[in-house]
Amino acid sequence: MHQEQPPLETEPVAAGPRPVRCRLCGRPLTGAASRRSGLGPACDAKLHPAGPDIRTRRHEVEQDALPGF
Ligand SMILES: [Zn+2]
Question: Region Disordered: which residues (predicted)?
Fold first, then answer.
């Protein structure tokens, strides 16, 4: 008896959108905002610290005047 077997075609690409990983720590991102920025919420907070800390550091940074202004 000859038994036919269907050819096994293993596709490495799984169905669905590709997982976006954080470009800083490499963790898979699940949030829409994280996927857009390419950073996890924790790493995004590291690179873009928000809060009164920015205002206090503003005194340390000298802003260059625009040339011709
Ligand atoms: Zn990260």
Answer: 32-69
